[in-house]
Write a structure and sequence with these properties.
The chain is an alpha+beta fold. The chain has 2 domains: 3-60; 67-181, Rieske Iron-sulfur Protein (3-layer Sandwich), CATH 2.102.10.10. Helix content is 29%, strand content 34%. It has a 6-stranded antiparallel beta sheet, with no helix packed on it. 13% of the residues are buried. FE2/S2 (inorganic) cluster (FES) binds at residues 122, 124-125, 127, 140, 142-143, 145, 156-158.
């Protein structure tokens, strides 16, 4: 007998009823395994969604670049040729990162209707300017940059006037908007 005919005989051996039943039992068991695994996976996914959301939410938060800061009643800033300093800290949240930024501003009220708020950061290399009433200039100590009362350049290497904040008055309180605006010379 050739090898081919032997193979044919092997294929023609009938499968017994018991073997078929055993095969069906295994299939049912496998099916149940798959269903159980699917249900388990689905339940795991459902229960983990809030956790994933909690972990990712800081990264998905929109980072607001503008905000209004309340500087208190406008009345507390006197009218005249002397600027009033005001300092505050603002916390920025960027994803998981929290940064506290300190700001210093000068409030200038030259008359009843006008209010101007300037940043105290020198536009050259960022040193803090201070007001010198004897010469009525803001002076940057780093390179002797001078600005006048309304922030215009008097002398020094600074490229532009002091940055200015947008203002608004609400219920008698003065608000400024971050960030300050750059001004042209
Ligand atoms: S940082 Fe102000 S003049 Fe240089």
């Amino acid at each position: 007998m050739t090898q081919n005919s032997s193979l044919r005989e092997t294929h023609t051996v009938p499968v017994s009823f018991r073997e078929r039943s055993a095969s069906k039992r295994i299939s049912r068991r496998d099916f149940m395994k798959v269903v159980t695994a699917a249900i388990g996976g689905f339940m795991g996914l459902v229960t983990s969604i809030p956790l994933i959301g909690y972990i990712l939410s800081p990264a998905l938060q929109k980072n607001e670049n503008t905000s209004w800061i309340d500087l208190g009643p406008l009345e507390k800033y006197p009218i005249g040729a002397t600027p009033s300093p005001f300092d505050f800290t603002q916390t920025r949240v960027n994803g998981w990162e929290r940064t506290a930024l300190s700001y210093g501003v000068f409030v200038i009220r030259t008359d009843e209707k006008r209010v101007q708020v300037l940043s105290n950061v020198c536009t050259h290399l960022g040193c803090r300017v201070t007001w010198h009433p004897n010469i009525e200039h803001y002076i940057s100590p780093c390179h002797d940059g001078h600005f006048d009362l309304t922030g215009n350049i008097v002398k020094g290497p600074q490229p532009r006037p002091l940055d200015e904040f947008t203002t608004k008055i609400e219920n008698g309180n003065l608000f400024i908007q971050l960030p300050p605006k750059k001004r042209e010379s």
